[in-house]
Design brief:
Elements: H1 18-25, H2 33-36, H3 41-47, H4 50-58, E1 64-71, E2 79-85, E3 113-117, E4 130-134, E5 137-141, E6 149-153, E7 158-162, E8 172-177, E9 180-185, E10 196-200, E11 205-209, E12 222-228, E13 231-236, E14 240-244, E15 249-253, H5 255-258, H6 262-266, E16 269-272, E17 275-279, E18 285-289, E19 294-297, E20 314-319, E21 322-330, E22 337-351, E23 354-369, E24 373-381
Antiparallel strand pairs: 1-2, 1-24, 2-3, 4-5, 5-6, 6-7, 8-9, 9-10, 10-11, 12-13, 13-14, 14-15, 16-17, 17-18, 18-19, 20-21, 21-22, 22-23
Length: about 375
Amino acid sequence: MSNGKESYSPVNMLNLPDEILLNCLSRVSRLYYQTLFLVSKRFRSLIASLELYETRTLLDRTENCLYLCLSFSFGSDPRWFTLCRRPTRNPNPKTNSGWFTPCFKPYKKSSDKLMVSVQTHDCSPPLAWSRTAIGSKIYVIGTKRDHRVFFMDCRSHAWHEAPSMQIFRKWETVSVLDRKIYVVEGWTGPGYSDLMEVFDPKTQIWEHVPSPRAEILNQSLILRSLALDGKLYVYGSDKTMVYKPNENTWDVVENSETRPLIIGTFFPSCVIDNVMYCSVMLRVLQWYDSEGRLWRVFKGLEELPKLPKCRSRVKLVDYGGKIAVLWEKRASAIGFDKKIWCAVIAVDRRSDHEVYGKIEWCDVVLTVPRSCRLLQFLAVNV
């Protein structure tokens, strides 16, 4: 005690036991882990441990994290990136100090986030496979007669091989419904009995799904599949079929009811609370009004930059009930690189026919060579 005031000694966190440090780190957003990883070898070891994520789960501190898969050149292995906070201090104009400072601020609602490369363990699966996410894992589904399945645990960034599919597929569509992966064969025909199988990550078991009756499955091409409102819609070349897992039944639905929705399966889209959101040729975000059976434009997004017309240059994902939009844009007409932008939009449905969006942040998160291609944009929970 001095002058009636208590004096405190600063606590050196590195002197704390592992159990207490894990408890503290588990309460910190994962966006900061890339920075904390640089503090010391001990921090690096704790952040890379599965015990940290088990503690996060016990304390209900899990959160949605964004992952981006890129191809940098033809035939090269895909590379993975994740969103984190930029390790930056407010620069002192007199000393010009600081770790990193943004090179420019292209949008008034800019952020301090960026995509950083993820060092994955073991070999990454081939380039041309389907990818989807459930919980803390990213699954990669074999295609073109390769029925193997792999997954990356986003807690450790290690690749593991999962049980292979039961059937070799010529070409398939993949959907996630009720935390299960449904794989639908794209090439079918009369009497085809292996249309679909489903994988349960909890049991690690693939199960055959009984195919529709012959009079329903009377077509040779499956265009797309879509999980919506507890059902799986399978769009064929001449009809739309719907599978209800709870009843284990197939039906045919009128084209007028579901055909407008198929647009969202060909363009960048995501489903949030049974509403589909999509980026189409208008270069703006739209949402599907299932009651009016038409696409409506989002309101309140006038300040969102125009999105590319090319669908392969835009990605949408459900980011914990918000929309995360990612797109690429050339830095200049003559430059040899391009910028990857990301925006997070909160959704506000004010009536059956009005949906407003609020841009929480929007900024360039990565600069890549022009030859780079966007492969997948996913959200996991860790």
